[in-house]
């Protein structure tokens, strides 16, 4: 069986680093790194995510501010709130929970967050900085994936990696980070031909396609490392079960290392969000 990359254990280590940095910022600069989270509407999954983010921030000694808005809130009202948070020196990170209700222009909302407070790493200036290898706030999920990969491969140079999925949130920034680590990177997606054979030649497969148990053991080279970013709810014998984009049971018998779902990438995403908030707070001192 594959080595299990424990996201819960790794996230606890990252959160300890965050808590130490929080204490330094408090002691040296009298600053409490503070994250402002904006939730629009009643999406149940988003409510769970926000609750977990706020809980972890509090545990790390950070400040957290929640703004919960009705689903009918206008774009103008949300923009006013973001402007207020941008100009508030006590707020170091701003996160608008996605997805937003359908009447919002998400690109405009993301672009309205000040890049220095964009702890999701989605602002076009941060995206451009990442693509060109400049210092930036990096999207949390790919950042967490890189920490997990380095547990298995301290040196990623020369590794052949296939990223399955091309989203702005995971696939594209993941590829950019892997390139910075000197990997050879292929991005596969719904139009890719012979996707199974591409994956079968990879030393590392990052699955971020959003389809339950899409990748099975036939796709994986023996001994390869598999990072499963997906989280999908399926019905199994009348019960709701969370599964990844990888068929864990079959792939774990072939792979050298694999992340579970749940308990893999998910906890790392929240830990990296708080890590970004402390980094943003320190940069704002300059």
Q: Which helices and strands, and how do they pair?
A:
Blueprint lengths: L2 E2 L2 H23 L4 E7 L3 H16 L3 E7 L5 H13 L5 E4 L9 H7 L11 H8 L8 H13 L7 E5 L6 H10 L3 E5 L6 H6 L3 E4 L17 E4 L3 E5 L2 E5 L4 H4 L5 E2 L6 H19 L3
Parallel strand pairs: 1-11, 2-3, 2-4, 5-6, 5-7, 7-8, 8-11
Antiparallel strand pairs: 9-10
Structure description:
The protein is of the alpha/beta class and 286 residues long. It folds into two domains: 30-114, Leucine Dehydrogenase, chain A, domain 1 (Rossmann fold); 140-266, Rossmann fold. It is built from ten helices and eleven strands. Strands 1-11-8-7-5-6 form a six-stranded parallel sheet. A three-stranded parallel sheet has the order 3-2-4, sandwiched between helices. Strand 9 and strand 10 form a beta hairpin. Helix 2 (44-59) crosses helix 10 (265-283) and helix 6 packs across helix 7.
Task: Provide keyphrases for this structure.
about 290 residues, alpha/beta, Rossmann fold, six-stranded parallel beta sheet, 11 strands
Brief description of this entry?
This protein is an alpha/beta fold and 286 residues long. The chain has 2 domains: 30-114, Rossmann fold (3-Layer(aba) Sandwich), CATH 3.40.50.10860; 140-266, NAD(P)-binding Rossmann-like Domain (Rossmann fold). The protein is 42% helix and 17% strand.
């Amino acid at each position: 069986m594959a080595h299990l990359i424990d996201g819960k254990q790794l996230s606890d280590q990252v959160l300890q680093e965050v808590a130490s940095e929080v204490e330094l910022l408090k002691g040296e600069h009298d600053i409490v790194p503070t994250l402002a989270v904006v939730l629009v509407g009643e999406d149940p999954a988003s409510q769970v995510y926000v609750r977990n983010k706020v809980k972890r921030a509090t545990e790390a000694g950070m400040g957290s501010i929640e703004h919960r808005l009705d689903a009918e809130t206008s774009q103008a009202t949300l923009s006013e709130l973001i402007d207020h948070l941008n100009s508030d020196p006590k707020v170091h990170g701003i996160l608008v929970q996605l997805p937003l209700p359908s009447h919002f222009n998400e690109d405009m909302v993301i672009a309205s967050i000040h890049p220095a407070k964009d702890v999701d790493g989605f602002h076009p200036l941060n995206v451009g900085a990442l693509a060109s290898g400049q210092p930036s706030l990096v999207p949390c999920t790919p950042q967490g994936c890189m920490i997990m990969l380095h547990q298995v491969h301290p040196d990623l140079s020369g590794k052949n990696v296939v990223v399955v999925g091309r989203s702005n949130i995971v696939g594209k920034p993941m590829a950019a980070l892997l390139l910075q680590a000197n990997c050879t990177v292929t991005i596969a997606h719904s139009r890719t031909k012979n996707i199974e054979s591409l994956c079968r030649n990879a030393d590392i497969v990052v699955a971020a396609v959003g389809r339950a148990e899409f990748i099975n053991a036939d796709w994986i080279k023996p001994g390869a490392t598999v990072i499963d970013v997906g989280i999908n709810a399926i019905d199994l014998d009348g019960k709701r079960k969370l599964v990844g984009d990888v068929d864990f049971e079959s792939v774990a018998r072939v792979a050298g290392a694999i992340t579970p779902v749940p308990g893999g990438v998910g906890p790392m995403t929240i830990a990296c969000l708080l890590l970004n908030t402390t980094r943003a707070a320190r940069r704002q001192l300059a």
